[in-house]
Design goal:
Shape: globular
Number of helices: 6
Largest sheet: 3 strands, parallel
Helix content: 40-55%
Strand order of the largest sheet: 1-2-3
Distance between the termini: 21 Å
Order of helices and strands: EHHEHHHHE
Number of strands: 3
Strand content: 5-15%
Radius of gyration: 15 Å
Length: 129
C-alpha cells in the first residue's frame, strides 16, 4: 500500500523549515530526515522512516510558495555557509555557484530538492500540487 507524506509548502520559509517539514511528514512531530542535501538523498533511499518496499509519494502542497522561499536568495545563504568549510579543490565551484545565485541565476535549493526526489536513487515519487 502506497504511503503518502504531505509537505505543506506554505509553511516553508527557508531550508531549515523544509528539513523540519519533511522530518515531521515522514517521522511525525519532531521527526528527523536529514539536514543536508546528501543526507536527504540517503534518507529517501529507505530505512529512515520510509517503507522498506519504497512504495511512497511525497505530496508537496503549495509548492509554488516553497519554490519562492527556497529560491536564489536562500540558495546563496546556504552557499555562503558552505564556503568557509569547502575543500580547497571545491572552493572555486562553490564561489561560482554563489555568484550565480546572488545574480538570480542557476538552480535553486527548490530545484535541487525536487531533483533529489525525482532523479535520485530513492524509490519514492513526487506529486507537486
Amino acid at each position: 500500500m502506497t504511503v503518502t507524506y504531505v509537505i505543506e509548502g506554505s509553511g516553508i520559509t527557508g531550508l531549515d523549515s523544509f528539513w523540519d517539514a519533511i522530518g515531521e511528514a515522514v517521522n511525525g512531530p519532531g521527526g528527523y530526515f536529514g539536514r543536508s542535501l546528501d543526507a536527504f538523498a540517503d534518507c529517501l533511499g529507505g530505512g529512515f522512516g520510509t517503507p522498506p518496499d519504497g512504495d511512497f509519494v511525497i505530496e508537496w502542497r503549495d509548492h509554488a510558495a516553497s519554490a519562492r522561499a527556497l529560491g536564489h536568495e536562500e540558495t546563496a545563504r546556504r552557499l555562503e555557509r558552505l564556503l568557509p568549510r569547502a575543500h580547497p579543490t571545491n572552493r572555486a565551484r562553490v564561489e561560482g555557484e554563489l555568484a550565480e545565485a546572488r545574480a538570480g541565476r542557476g538552480p535553486t535549493l527548490f530545484d535541487d530538492l525536487v531533483g533529489i526526489i525525482t532523479e535520485g536513487t530513492g524509490p519514492g515519487t513526487l506529486r507537486l500540487v
